[in-house]
Amino acid sequence: xxxxxxxxxxxxxxxxxxxxxxxxxxxxxxxxxxxxxxxxxxxxxxxxxxxxxxxxxxxxxxxxxxxxxxxxxxxxxxxxxxxxxxxxxxxxxxxxxxxxxxxxxxxxxxxxxxxxxxxxxxxxxxxxxxxxxxxxxxxxxxxxxx
Length: 146
Hints:
By secondary structure, this protein is α+β, with helices and mostly antiparallel strands. The chain has seven helices and three strands; from the N terminus they run ααβαααββαα. Strand 2 (92-99) and strand 3 form a beta hairpin. The radius of gyration is 17 Å and the shape is globular. The two termini are 12 Å apart.
């Protein structure tokens, strides 16, 4: 089976959501920004969080790579502008909260953000069915999914 035939078509609602984002100018200028957006959406699907906690959670995900100096810790100068863009594009919103008696902005997913996260998860599921991804997963020592 060719890779292109393994991809599940988007529903009309998913297409509508993606077109809405494109119309708003929410396009990614690189895979790292797209992946960071996915991580933020995923983290906020678990709990509302302030920016510093989001940064710490991302660093927790990549702790071994950071400790072995294969990656640098997440920079606030990357995450806060991304949060602002995501909020402007209605993927997330924020409210004022307290952390250790200090005022902070707490971020949470919007319905649009939940829908985009759902589409991204579906895309990941489709991607791991493609031969190039199966090869990558196998080479990393993980069991491939048939």
